[in-house]
Design brief:
This protein has helices spanning 14-25, 47-57, 72-75, 83-92, 127-136, 157-164; strands spanning 3-6, 30-33, 38-43, 66-68, 97-102, 118-122, 140-144, 170-173, 183-186, 194-197. It is an alpha/beta fold and 210 residues long. The chain has one domain: DHBP synthase. A 10-stranded mixed β-sheet has the order 1-8-2-3-7-4-6-5-9-10, sandwiched between helices. A hairpin with a 4-residue loop joins strand 2 and strand 3 (38-43). The longest helix is centred in the first third of the chain and has 12 residues, at 14-25. The model has no long low-confidence stretch (mean pLDDT 93).
């Protein structure tokens, strides 16, 4: 059964987030709120937890997983970013955007795309997510919380518990999130960004018209 931590969305209780971070550090699979629906999360360097994350989401190794980062400096340790891309990332972060970028050696090879050696990265604009990441001390491996066989992300912690209680160890409840996934932009294909998925993040904010 999942351990449920109910926290205030704007002033989350550090004690609860600390406990959640400890359970994730120990290899637990969690569900946490973000600025665009809930997300499955686990420790970056835990192979068994990453396999459980793919299994509960119902995706294979060709599905881009995403690193939730605290800020751009942390993101730059895990992705190769040129000056032009950095300017775009600065406009978009924090916010509901995921960027596909070439992975650095800090990313375990089994987590990057098997043929392209790319990884998804994002900096969420959500108080609870940010404070959890700060306590955790490193990025969390994540993917949008869409149950297998469905197309829409989940945005309510009680519904997550009802549906996935036996498959998760941690659920952080900070109230309902937006029920939209992130906008995904691939920056690894050349000079121009490629729109992979239109989600909550507006392209106009980035000066893009794709």
């Amino acid at each position: 059964m999942a351990q449920l931590f109910e926290v205030h969305p704007d002033n989350p209780q550090p004690r609860f987030l600390r406990q959640a971070a400890q359970m994730l550090q120990a290899g637990g699979l969690g569900a946490i709120p973000t600025d665009s629906s809930y997300a499955f999360v686990c420790r970056l360097d835990d192979k068994a937890a990453a396999e459980a994350l793919r299994r509960v989401r119902g995706v294979d190794d060709k599905h881009h997983l995403t690193l939730l980062c605290r800020d751009l400096s942390e993101l730059a340790a895990y992705a190769m970013v040129d000056n032009r891309q950095y300017r775009l990332l600065k406009l978009a972060t924090p916010g509901p955007y995921t960027f596909i970028l070439p992975a650095t050696k800090e990313v375990p090879r089994r987590l990057s795309h098997p043929s392209r050696r790319t990884i998804g990265l994002r900096v969420p604009d959500h108080k609870v997510t940010q404070e959890l990441l700060a306590l955790f001390g490193e990025p969390l491996l994540s993917t949008t919380l869409i149950p297998p066989g469905e197309t829409e992300p989940m945005n309510d912690a009680s519904a997550v518990c009802d549906r996935l209680d036996r498959q998760l160890q941690v659920v952080v409840d900070a109230g309902a999130c937006p029920a939209q996934p992130t906008t995904v932009l691939d920056l690894s294909q050349g000079d121009e960004p490629v729109l992979v998925r239109q989600g909550r993040g507006e392209l106009a904010r980035l000066g893009l018209h794709l």
